[in-house]
Write a structure and sequence with these properties.
The chain is of the alpha+beta class. It is built from eight helices and 15 strands. Helix content is 27%, strand content 30%.
Length: 281
């Protein structure tokens, strides 16, 4: 049987912060007989010459892999790999849609998933966009950053230059992240904060494993059915009546919280999924 070759792609700066996760993934890949190697996006150049697309490493030719685990947010780069017949996890389509909060909400609205009322802003939000208080989000923000509670008009003057959406808030300081591989729910984590309207674990919130109800699982499965995921985190907030509303989808999702709460080897699960997908291509 052919041994599948793969690239694990990080920006160099992000790789320095995630060395433990990278080593974990490389070790698990080796145990599964996958030839996975780390490459920095900073060292990979893409383009076309003589009407042929190419990718080179440090300006030198390189053998292309069967697959790539893309841990950067760069859908144009991922699309280049796909056009060179490299199977990418996550795909360029997933990267494009879920790393832009406006695109995520626009796309998911078409399948009737409950979400907070949202305005896609042309420029900096204003009080004419939505009645105060509201949440302003940089569409490209990640990890709970670039998210602001706007209670007064003066708060708007503190927003940096960016592309924004504004939303009616749900229940403050409480959300759920559902870890998904392919079309399978792996686990769910409840994140809470008593001191911040954002509940992110990395921002000082607490976390615990969460058992999804039958209705909540059905809602998650409806979101999954609209995409072709590799591995993602799907985040939900709570409405006032306790029901879930989709908040966002994390493409380059980490597993620090899940690893702290369980012995689940999500990296191995992800690589087994990738190996299975490659075997049927």
């Amino acid at each position: 049987m052919k041994k599948h070759t793969g690239w694990l792609i990080y920006n160099q700066e992000d790789a320095a912060k995630n060395r433990g996760y990278i080593d974990w993934m490389l070790e698990e890949a080796k145990s599964l007989d996958l030839d996975l190697r780390l490459y920095y996006r900073d060292h990979l150049q893409i383009g076309h010459r003589s009407n042929q697309l190419y990718v080179v490493h440090k300006h030198e030719p390189i053998d292309l892999p069967d697959f790539a685990i893309v841990r950067t947010i760069d859908p144009f780069f991922t699309k280049q790999l796909e056009r060179l017949h490299i199977t990418c996890f996550n795909s360029s389509f997933i990267s494009e849609i879920v790393n832009d909060k406006a695109k995520t909400h626009q796309y998911v609205t078409s399948i009737g998933i409950p979400m907070s009322d949202t305005v896609y802003c042309y420029g900096t939000p204003s009080t004419s966009d939505m009645e105060l208080p509201f949440i302003a989000k940089d569409v490209h923000g990640r990890g709970g950053k670039q998210v602001y509670l706007i209670e007064h008009e003066k708060d708007l003057r503190e927003l940096p230059n960016a592309k924004w959406i504004v939303q009616k808030p749900g229940v403050f300081g409480k959300d759920i992240r559902v870890f998904v591989i392919g079309n399978r729910i792996i686990a769910a984590v409840l994140r809470e904060s008593s001191s911040n309207f954002k509940a992110n674990y990395t921002l000082g919130g607490s976390a615990s494993l969460y058992e999804l109800s039958a209705a909540e699982r059905t809602l998650v499965e409806r979101v999954i059915a609209a995409f072709d995921f590799g591995m993602v985190g799907i985040d939900f907030i709570f409405a006032e009546d306790g029901s879930l509303m989709l908040n966002e989808i994390e493409d380059v999702v980490g597993s620090r919280t899940l690893s702290a709460l369980s012995n689940l080897n999500i990296v191995k699960e992800y690589l087994l999924f990738i190996k299975e997908k490659l075997s049927v291509k």
